[in-house]
Amino acid sequence: MTVTYEEAGVDLQAAADLSHRVQMKLGTGLFGGFVPVDDLKEYEHPVLVSSVDGIGTKTRLAASLQVTHGLGRDIVHHCVNDIAVHGATPLFFVDYLAFHRLDSSLADRLVDDIDRACSALGISLAGGETAEMPAVYREGCFDVAGAIVGVVERGGIVDGSRIRAGDALVGLPSSGPHTSGYSLIQALFGEEDLRALVPELGNTLGDALLASHRCYLGEIRQALSLGGVHGLAHITGGGIVGNLSRIMPAGLQAAVELPPLPLVFRLIQDRGVSATEMRRVFNLGIGLIAVCDRRIVERLPADWRVLGHVVETRDDANRVVLEQSRSPTSNGKEMT
Amino acid sequence: MTVTYEEAGVDLQAAADLSHRVQMKLGTGLFGGFVPVDDLKEYEHPVLVSSVDGIGTKTRLAASLQVTHGLGRDIVHHCVNDIAVHGATPLFFVDYLAFHRLDSSLADRLVDDIDRACSALGISLAGGETAEMPAVYREGCFDVAGAIVGVVERGGIVDGSRIRAGDALVGLPSSGPHTSGYSLIQALFGEEDLRALVPELGNTLGDALLASHRCYLGEIRQALSLGGVHGLAHITGGGIVGNLSRIMPAGLQAAVELPPLPLVFRLIQDRGVSATEMRRVFNLGIGLIAVCDRRIVERLPADWRVLGHVVETRDDANRVVLEQSRSPTSNGKEMT
After folding, report:
1. Which of A102, A146, A261, B329 has an alpha carbon 20 to 30 Å from A178's alpha carbon atom?
2. Neighbouring residues of B254: CB distance < 8 A, sequence distance ≥ 6
3. B161-178: per-residue pLDDT in tens?
């Protein structure tokens, strides 16, 4: 008896072919990826900022609807946002793709999509790893993860430490659930629900749910250039409370007035998800929150909406308090 | 009906608890990890070198034998070797852990182990992501991946381009299959085989197979300090041919005389794996190969063994040729 790796479920040739194509794209067949950083010498005290993330079970929804072309953007944008909120300029990205069975054309599409998302933001795609693990992944399943590295001047790190009472809370819309809550979503909706056209969405529910994770890099840079931005929170798993809490200093509380739920989140809630659970899992239509000097609010572009303000508190266990907007149509930039 | 995320199979509280513990360890609850790099200013032309990897289905073997304490070291050492072979000094590491069901005590153990492996090498653990995806991973399964970032002076990059005919090939032993070939291994051996003591190994087969991926950072630094090292190859999936080929310049061929197979690889081969397949999948006992000026060979520590030399060739399709050692006991440092 002769046993091959292929019989054990791993197609080394497909992996080698993919690896070759990826190398051509990356310009290296070496063990590591190279990013020259002579520019770092212009920083007085350069600090590298990194983040690693996955896009969770959004891969499964995409695979079941055969719409996988946005997943590369999802992981790149998710990672970029996580370091942009600290004031960092992204330098390079590396991806990690793992499959039940290596599907070369899917893997190629993912790498192409990642590469395009990086190029559009001026980031190098410095490397990647593709794994085939039939014994670990369920049939037809795959995982998309990645890590980003950027740089920020030490004195320019945005981490919430300058937040003070009276600061304004302003937010930018999300494009949907981004990359959070997809296990719950798939427990709620069957394929028929997902493929059905929802006239008010102008789209099928599935396509609306697969909208790419919005990238906030440009908006963050623009806001930071105004001065007076004291903290930025990327709203992902854990929702507004879980994520905004990460940057709120002791003794202060963010009082957030939730804007009306976008339709896609109302459709989810209508399937029987409690308001508490919705807040714990989803971004509820707000993908980024900035805490800033209230004097800069009116200089922000119209896309930003005022969500509340920062007050003093003795209740350090609740650094963020959410209230549903009293008027379902209030979404202007006036402070309440 | 009220549906919670937990009913959909994701335990956000366990994830938050873990995240809290990891944050305590990392000293940040922020969106990205911070690594000050003032030292980079001492480089004339700093180049960041990165690599991303996973440890494949070794996780499954470890889980089935309930010996998971070495997996953190596996991923850190795998990644460190991949940039050390280019002459880079590792700066920081980020991990990605994904589970069918989040097992907090396992996740804690993995993060502890990763943290210890990083500390031992003077590397920062700058961040990590933990995902729970019951719909994507098989029951009881998990994935361990990570990315490393290091730095090298542009002029000091080791990439094989200085390799020339007459150079010596020297190698360092592996500690076992490291992190390659575990799907095949688990197709060959059942739990009874793995738990059985193999007297010649002084260990059970399972424990021998779970030996941690050896880290070559110290040995590589020492060799580089001698000057005359023209290329370094980390032998992982793809074996000696697949990996050494990555650094061999056109027109040159590495003629490698394979040392006798260590017992653990003979036990694998004895289950019916062809010699060709063995060479394609496993490191066969050699985890690192250096291509260097033959004059430095005798100044290398005794752990290095001579494996062959570089010759000119017109056969660019075969940059590495393997031959089985004629004398099964020849393992000295004399060149043949």
Report:
1. A102
2. B169, B244, B248, B289, B291, B308, B309, B310, B319, B320, B321
3. 999 999 999 999 999 999
Residue pointed to by tokens 């005290």: A45
Quick one: average pLDDT of B65-76?
Answer: 96
CB A52 within 8 A of CB A146: yes
Mean pLDDT (chain B, rounded): 91
Q: Please answer yes or no on whether A147 and B52 come within 8 Å at the CB atom.
A: yes
Tokens for B34, please give them: 């911070």
Unique residue bearing structure tokens 């809630």: A269
What angle do the packed helices B71-84 and B217-225 form, to 10 degrees?
Answer: 20
Q: What ipTM goes with this model? A: 0.89
A136–chain B Cβ distance below 8 A for any pair: yes
| Residue in chain A lying closest to B128 (CA) | A52
- The first and second tokens of residue B162, run together, are 């200085």
Instruction: Please check whether residue B147 touches A, CB under 8 A.
Output: yes
d(C-alpha A325, C-alpha A316), whole Å: 24
B277 CB neighbours in chain A (<8 A) are 2-5
A217 CA to centre of own chain: 11
**Least confident segment among A102-106, A252-256, B15-19, B38-42:** B15-19
Interface of A with B in 154-183 (CB under 8 A): 154, 157, 159, 181, 183
Phi, psi of A58 (to 5 degrees): -60, -25
Letter for the amino acid at A37? V
pTM metric for this prediction: 0.91
Reply yes or no on whether the pLDDT at B17 is more than 90.
no
Asked whether B117 and B83 are in contact (CB, 8 A), the reply is no
With a pLDDT cut of 70, the percent of chain A lying above it is 89
Q: Measure the CA angle with vertex A316, ends A310 and A319; round to 5°.
A: 40
**pLDDT one-digit tens code per residue, A242-251:** 999 999 999 9
Distance CA(B298)–CA(A151), nearest Å, equals 43
Tokens 């908006």, residue?
Answer: A219
Residue A3 to residue B272, Cβ atoms within 8 A: yes
| B124 beta partners | B92
CA–CA dist B280, B236 (Å, integer) = 10
pLDDT over 50 (residue A333): no
Greater confidence (B250 vs A22) lies with B250
Q: Enumerate the residues of chain A whose CB falls inside 8 A of the CB of residue B289.
A: none
Is A147 in Cβ contact with B147 (below 8 Å)?
yes
How far apart are the C-alpha atoms of A252 and A240, rounded to whole Å?
A: 16
Nearest-Å Rg of the Cα atoms of chain A is 21
pLDDT of residue A16: 63
Convert the pLDDT of each residue in A92-148 to its tens digit.
999 999 999 999 999 999 999 999 999 999 999 999 999 999 999 999 999 999 999
Q: Tell me the pairing of strands B286-292 and B229-234.
A: antiparallel
CB contact under 8 A, A238 and B12: yes
CA distance A140 to chain B (A): 9
Residues A288 and A323: their CA atoms lie apart, in Å, by 17
